[in-house]
Specification:
This protein has two domains: 7-123 and 233-276; 127-230, no CATH class. It has 362 residues and is mostly helical. It contains 13 helices and two strands, in the order H-H-H-H-H-H-H-H-H-H-H-E-E-H-H. The protein has helices spanning 2-34, 36-41, 50-53, 59-87, 90-116, 127-137, 144-157, 172-175, 209-212, 217-220, 230-298, 327-343, 352-361, and strands spanning 303-304, 324-325. Strands 1-2 form a two-stranded antiparallel sheet. Helix content is 64%, strand content 1%.
């Protein structure tokens, strides 16, 4: 019983940690939903993929949704785990085990896909593809989300263009005149006087617009960002990926502990049932042995008599005492009196037969 109690304690402890992880996942998903800048910036991660770029929302929006759903499922699984621990039956332990295995496998597949095959998910930061996406989508009507994401990246990281500010020279934004014709770069490439504002990327105000939009390098060098945005985006992606991977590893470790606790609990349950069945089997064995002994005594062909019995039932001396009586005499002593009682509808007293036997033996 002590081992069973220890198994339940370990299982409940793992369930509690698993419940905390599930709640943290739900909170993390809601937090990502509330971080509009982070979600908007993730739009650039899928810029080179036609499938992901055609989605109505950025990639991180769906990741946040998946994290929240995974946290909700993990919380429900932890509740089922507490229920299974209380009932302590194979059925609920099996359901809990399978649900944790499904979560673990799904999480492992996603982590492996993001780590080894990000191109399969449409996540790519190839320089050529990113420059092409910038030149064909920035400032184009219907691509406001992509345009805002590029402006956010340029204001946040202090950069201009995916490779350099020259990326805008052959972009549709400049060739088609979607912006000011005399602007070589967007205003978000300039050094802003309202850079500290949270929505500065939506309404950029350059500190010196004329110098920023100058064509001479010596003139715009101090008023325009000249760094490439692609390395900053790559570092930002790695940072988000590290957070996601670290949280996934912690959750996977706790899930492994839960699986081990379930296996230990099943082992303890089997041991407990074996201990409970052992006394019952011993009692049944004793009953069977006693019945066999009784049957052997009843159907024994000869009954041993006392050695000093040397007289018959009429008091006549019969010589040396015979040590055994045949089965015929046994029938006369027990079976015939029983038949007489049945004929007269009488019930013999419990002590009648032993008395007859004693009289006969004496």
């Amino acid at each position: 019983m002590a081992c069973c109690f220890n198994y339940k304690f370990v299982l409940n402890l793992c369930n509690f940690l698993f419940l905390i992880c599930g709640l943290l996942l739900v909170v993390s998903g809601l937090y990502i939903f509330s971080d509009n800048k982070r979600i908007l910036l993730s739009r650039l991660l899928a810029a080179s993929s036609d499938r992901l770029s055609s989605l109505p929302q950025p990639l991180l929006f769906y990741i946040a949704l998946g994290v929240a759903i995974a946290g909700f499922v993990a919380t429900l699984a932890a509740v089922v785990g507490f229920w299974a621990s209380c009932l302590h039956t194979y059925c609920f332990l099996t359901i809990y085990f399978l649900s944790v295995v499904v979560l673990l496998l799904t999480e492992s597949v996603l982590c492996l896909a993001i780590t080894l095959w990000p191109h399969c998910l449409g996540i790519s930061l190839d320089e050529t593809q990113m420059v092409r996406s910038l030149q064909s989508n920035y400032g184009v009507p219907g691509q406001e989300q992509f345009t805002n994401a590029v402006d956010l990246a340029q204001v946040r990281f202090g950069c201009c263009g995916m490779r350099s500010s020259l990326d805008y020279d052959t972009s549709l934004w400049r060739l088609q005149g979607y912006g000011q014709r005399n602007w070589p770069v967007p205003l978000s490439c300039c050094v802003l006087e309202n850079a500290d504002h949270s929505v500065a990327y939506l309404d950029p105000k350059p500190a010196n617009e004329s110098m920023c939009q100058s064509l001479e390098r010596l003139s715009y060098e101090r008023e325009r960002h000249t760094e490439s945005c692609l390395p900053h985006l790559d570092n930002w992606y790695r940072e988000q990926y590290s957070i996601f991977l670290g949280a996934s590893l912690i959750l996977a470790l706790i899930e492994f502990c839960v699986l081990l606790a379930i296996i230990m609990s099943c082992t303890g349950l089997a041991s407990q049932r074996a201990l409970l069945r052992k006394p019952v089997q011993e009692v049944r064995t004793q009953k069977v042995k006693s019945r066999q002994t009784l049957i052997e005594n009843i159907y024994e062909p000869d009954v041993e008599l006392r050695e000093n019995s040397s007289h018959s039932a009429d008091g006549i001396y019969l010589g040396p005492a015979s040590r055994h009586v045949s089965s015929e005499d046994f029938k006369e002593l027990y079976i015939k009196p029983r038949d007489l009682y049945k004929q007269h509808n009488l019930r013999p007293s419990p002590a009648s037969r032993p008395t007859q036997m004693r009289n006969y033996l004496v």
